[in-house]
Amino acid sequence: MVWSFLVRLSKVVQRLLIGINSGLNAGLAPLYLAEISPVSMRGSIGTVYQLVITITILLSQVLGLKGVLGTEWGWPWLLAVTVIPAAIQCATLPLCPESPKYLLLNKGQELHAQRDYGSYVGVISLYRSCHLICGDIRNGSRFYSMVPCDR
């Protein structure tokens, strides 16, 4: 009886943690992509992210069909396939730089932010974006009030 209760409780906790993780990923990944993308491509990149999520849901539904991997011997393989993207994400996470906005606004590292943002969007777009942000700072924008910039 106690064992049955512990198993059910662990399932509830696991589903809770998976739900929190899914919710965070649904908001944080597009936010990061929007911060590192050029202004002219932000909407497209956000849309492509949602499209990829929808395609992966469709793919998982197709792989779960009885004719594919939805059989008794196929379910362990279907669940094991999820290790591949997780391993790729863990291997490439150290290669993902900090968001330039995070470096500029939270850490006050203006040169690092310019270097990282310049590698994404090019030099001309970099100076235009920095000019817009510094203009907002000079005009007293509360959003950029923590930035150590020449006022």
TrEMBL record:
Transmembrane helix as UniProt keyword: yes
Keyword tRNA-binding appears in the UniProt entry: no
Keywords on record: Membrane, Sugar transport, Transmembrane, Transmembrane helix, Transport
GO MF annotation, one: hexose transmembrane transporter activity
Membrane topology: Multi-pass membrane protein
Pfam families: Sugar_tr
Localization in the cell: Membrane
TM regions (residue ranges): 12-33, 45-63, 75-96
Domain Major facilitator superfamily (MFS) profile per the UniProt entry, residue ranges: 1-151
One term under GO cellular component: membrane
PANTHER family: FACILITATED GLUCOSE TRANSPORTER PROTEIN 1, SOLUTE CARRIER FAMILY 2
Protein name: Solute carrier family 2, facilitated glucose transporter member 3
